[in-house]
Specification:
290 residues, alpha/beta, Glutaredoxin, globular, binds zinc ion
Length: 290
C-alpha cells in the first residue's frame, strides 16, 4: 500500500503504548490486535533500551503482500540492492535514523507458537541498531582485495557484507536479550532459525561448484549460527551444537565442520562495537574461504 494508505492508530482510540512509541497500521488490522502487539513491543523496548532512548516507530501490516510492498518501497527509496531479508514476520530498520519495527500480522499468526520471541528480537535491534549508521556499509581496500581473490565482484562483496552484518547483529541482539533474562525467547527463535531447510539444501547444490557462490552461501548461514552462539555458553548449550550440525547436514563433512568452526570462532571474537565486529567477521570469513 502506498504511504497514503497509512492510518495513524491514535485516531482509532489507540494505543496504551508510551509517548515514545508511534504506531501506524496498514490495511485491516483490528484495533485490539494492534494494541496488543504495539503494547508488547513498547513494554519490552522501555524495559531494555537505556534512557534517554529514541522514539520507537511501529508499523503493523495486515498481510504478507502489504508487508512486502512496504519493504520494496523502503528499499527503492533508500537504494538498497541486497537480498535475504524477505519473508520474515517482523523486521527492524533505521532508514529514518531512528528505530522502526514492521510486523506482518498474517505471518505472525500463521507462524504458530508464541509471537514473543520474534517481537523481542526486533526490539533488541531497536535498542542496539536504531541509527542509520549501523546499516552503512564500509568496504576497506584490504577487504576488497580479499574479496577479489575469491572472485567476488563489488555487488557480491556487498551481499556478503550484508549477510555477515545480519549475523553479527543477531549475535548482539541475543546477547542483549540474554542479559535481560529472555532466555526462553532467544532459545525459541534459535531453534526456529536452526531448523533444517530444503531451500538451503537446494541452494547449496546450485552453488557448490562455484567458489564465489559457496562463500556467499556460507555467509548466509551465519545468521542462524551467530544468533544461537551466545546460548552455547549456557546450561544446555550442547543442544545448540547438535541443532546447528543438523541444520547443515546437507554439506559434506569437511565443509560442515569448517562452517561451524568458522561461525563459533567468529562469535568468540565479537565485542561491543558493531562495525568492528562486522569488519572482523568478514575478514575471518574471507581468510577462511569456503
Ligand atoms: Zn535479527
Amino acid at each position: 500500500m502506498a504511504p497514503d494508505g497509512q492510518r495513524d492508530v491514535e485516531s482509532h482510540g489507540m494505543p496504551d503504548t508510551s509517548d515514545e512509541t508511534v504506531v501506524h497500521v496498514y490495511g485491516a488490522v483490528p484495533p485490539e490486535r494492534a494494541r496488543a502487539v504495539a503494547g508488547l513491543l513498547a513494554e519490552t523496548y522501555e524495559r531494555i533500551a537505556p534512557s534517554p532512548r529514541l522514539p520507537l516507530e511501529v508499523r503493523l501490516a495486515d498481510t504478507r503482500g502489504r508487508m512486502a510492498e512496504l519493504a520494496t518501497a523502503d528499499k527503492a527509496r533508500h537504494g538498497v540492492t541486497t537480498v535475504g531479508d524477505e519473508g520474515f514476520a517482523c523486521a527492524h530498520d533505521a532508514f529514518e535514523d531512528r528505530p522502526r519495527i514492521t510486523v506482518c500480522l498474517e505471518a505472525l499468526e500463521n507462524a504458530g507458537g508464541s509471537p514473543l520471541p520474534a517481537l523481542r528480537h526486533e526490539v533488541g535491534h531497536a535498542c542496539l541498531h536504531g541509527r542509520r549508521a549501523f546499516y552503512e556499509v564500509r568496504m576497506g581496500a584490504k577487504l576488497r582485495r580479499a574479496a577479489a581473490s575469491h572472485g567476488l565482484d563489488e555487488a557480491a562483496l556487498l551481499q556478503l557484507l550484508f549477510f555477515v552484518s545480519v549475523g553479527v547483529k543477531d549475535w548482539e541482539v541475543s546477547r542483549l536479550l540474554l542479559r535481560h533474562g529472555y532466555l526462553e525467547d532467544v532459545q525459541a527463535l534459535a531453534w526456529e532459525l536452526l531448523a533444517p531447510s530444503e531451500e538451503d539444501r537446494m541452494a547449496w547444490q546450485i552453488s557448490e561448484g562455484v567458489p564465489a557462490l559457496r562463500l556467499l552461501r556460507a555467509a548466509s548461514q551465519l545468521k542462524p549460527l551467530l544468533h544461537a552462539a551466545p546460548l552455547r555458553a549456557l546450561p544446555g548449550g550442547a543442544e545448540v551444537d547438535a541443532r546447528a550440525a543438523a541444520m547443515v547436514d546437507y554439506l559434506p563433512a569437511p565443509a560442515r565442520g569448517a562452517l561451524l568452526g568458522l561461525a563459533w570462532c567468529v562469535a568468540d571474537g565479537l565485542g561491543d562495537d558493531t562495525h568492528a565486529n562486522i569488519r572482523r567477521a568478514s575478514a575471518q570469513l574471507l581468510a577462511a574461504g569456503f
